[in-house]
Amino acid sequence: MEQPVKIYHSAVEGTLEVIGGKWKPVIIFHLTFGKKRNTELMQLIPTITQKMLTQHLRELEEEGIVQRTIYNEVPPKVEYELTAYGWSLKELLHMMCRWGDSHIARKYQGKAVIQAGAPPAIPITE
Question: What's the CATH code of the domain at 26?
Fold first, then answer.
């Protein structure tokens, strides 16, 4: 029997390998609301550096999560959007958002806010 190329101890490891870290889930979450340009993402995530945003967008593009479209214009126009594969993460990210809302409310008991620039929490639908 052939040896596996990589061994995971949980499928969660495989997920985190692609979307793990501080910024990747946030970038993907914002892209679930539609195409975004670099400057839009910087405005939505004001504490990320340009270097980190560019690095994470490239990594997400390499993983097939994000598609970059370059328009032949002057000045150049570049848009980022989720691929069909990237869209498969939508529910996961929106569930994380709802959990985060509950966690913030529980931990800070009304003494923390989510910045107005962030999209509103997605209601739970069952």
Answer: 1.10.10.10
C-alpha to C-alpha distance for 25 and 97, rounded to whole angstroms: 10
Find the domain containing 73 and state its range: 11-90
What is the C-alpha separation between 108 and 1, in angstroms, rounded? 53
pLDDT, one tens digit per residue, over 5-45 is 899 999 999 999 999 999 999 999 999 999 999 999 999 99
In whole angstroms, what is the distance from residue 10 CA to residue 1 CA? 22
CA distance 42 to 21: 17
Question: How many domains does the structure of the chain reveal?
Answer: 1
Give CA–CA dist 77/38, Å, rounded. 9
Edge-to-edge strand ranges of the sheet holding 77-82: 36-37, 77-82, 66-71
CA distance 109 to 115: 16
Task: Quote the DSSP letter at residue 100.
Answer: H
**Model pTM?**
0.84
| DSSP code of residue 68 | E
Measured distance CA(51)–CA(69) in Å, rounded? 19
